[in-house]
Model the fold of this input.
Amino acid sequence: MSKAASFNRKLAEKITSGVSTMWCAYGFAALALISLPAALKTGDLVVIVAWIAQTFLQLVLLSIIMVGQNAASEAVAQKIDETHTASLGEFELAKEAQMIAKEELKELKEIANEIHTILRDVERKK
Done:
């Protein structure tokens, strides 16, 4: 990655982490409210609706949506971590069960060999 690309990425990450806070949403709301009196003074419904849609909602909702996405991402990451931990636990249980099954199979083979030996001895004695 080039130096320019690295710088741009770091800058974008800093800006994104700053904008995706509720404090930024509060700041944007305060900034938007500065122009509200002027929009209301016009008495023009189109200007007021435009102020709401283009100024207030776009500025404030941007940060709020980013905060929500961060919260949702953290919840997904936590679920993934919990699932991974549970899967590892189940894997360990499966390994233990496999080891037990191998031991039992070994014992069954030994018992089968002993039975075969006994049966051969019985057949020879007849």
Summary: The chain has one domain: 3-125. DSSP finds four helices and no strands in the chain. Helices lie at 3-19, 22-34, 36-42, 45-125. The mean pLDDT is 92.
